[in-house]
Amino acid sequence: MNSFATAIEDLDWPNIRLQLDQEGFAVLAGFIDPFEPLKHGWNDTLSRLKEGFYPRLAQVSNQWNESLQLAYRYPRQLADFQVQCLAAGQQQELSRLTCLREEQYLALTQDAEGQYVFPFQLQAVLSSPGRDFTGGEFVLTEQRPRMQSRPMVVPLRPGDIAITATAHRPFKGSKGYYRVNIKRAISRVRSGERLGFSLSFHYGPQAHHD
User: Fold this and answer.
1) Do the beta carbons of residue 100 and residue 138 sit within 8 Å?
2) Which of 115, 149, 187, 200 is a good FRET partner for 140, with 20 to 30 A between their CA atoms?
3) What is the tens place of the pLDDT at every residue in 14-32?
4) Closest Cα to residue 141, out of 63, 61, 25?
5) How far is the C-alpha of 20 from the C-alpha of 128, rounded, in Å?
6) How far is Cα 55 from Cα 180, in angstroms, rounded to an integer?
7) 95 C-beta neighbours (distance < 10 Å), count
8) pLDDT (tens digit, 9 = 90+) per residue, 185-200?
9) What radius of gyration do the chain's Cα atoms show?
10) Does pLDDT of 207 surpass 90?
11) Residue 209 — very low, low, confident or very high, per pLDDT cuts 50/70/90?
């Protein structure tokens, strides 16, 4: 049985939805044991988080698509969505553990390639800011048409999980909803070692090698 399932259902989803709509992210404080991937293995933790969060986030995703007048609707079950990804040639696992040491960083990026892109990702830090490392802040940037990019530092402590927009989110303007562009980054680690993970629900196109 997925041990995350009950905890996920007990979350305050109306409030999470409000935060996602307004900011493009929501932080779940102390949701996961930071040693979970070490205790049960990364693949097991990955699978249980995906299976637990997907149904709820698929509902929000479909509401976002409705706001943006997009016809596609995400299936209720993760397995059905994964079948669609694989059929479209998307076989590359995008979820990853990250280990950044002094002077390393993650440049602004998106996991947004392929026909099927799930609107949400999960982000977490597994080591302690200020004790195990300094720097290494998790950052989102939001670009609206004809406006400067808006940077957002997302505070994360060990065990927190941030639900973040993958690449776009709906924004309600004076003439209705339109898409704003989202990217993520991790700032330069000034000292120590920063462990964390990024979890994607969709697969990416298989890398081509010459």
Assistant:
1) no
2) 115
3) 999 999 999 999 999 999 9
4) 25
5) 25
6) 24
7) 21
8) 999 999 999 999 999 9
9) 17
10) no
11) very low
Domains of the chain, residue spans: 13-204
Hey, CA dihedral for 137, 148, 61, 75, is it positive or negative?
negative
Element (H, E) at 50: helix 42-67
**Under 8 Å between Cβ of 2 and 55:** no
3-state secondary structure 136-202: CCEEEEEECCCCCCEEEEECCCCCCEEEEECCEEEEEECCEEEEEEEEEEECCEEEEEEEEEEEECC
What is the CATH number assigned to the segment(s) 13-204? 2.60.120
The residue type of 36 is E
CA dist list (Å): 69 to 53, 63, 146, 174, 178: 24, 10, 22, 16, 9
Specify the pTM: 0.93
Integer CA distances (angstroms), 182 to 86, 143, 166, 189, 194, in order: 25, 7, 7, 22, 23
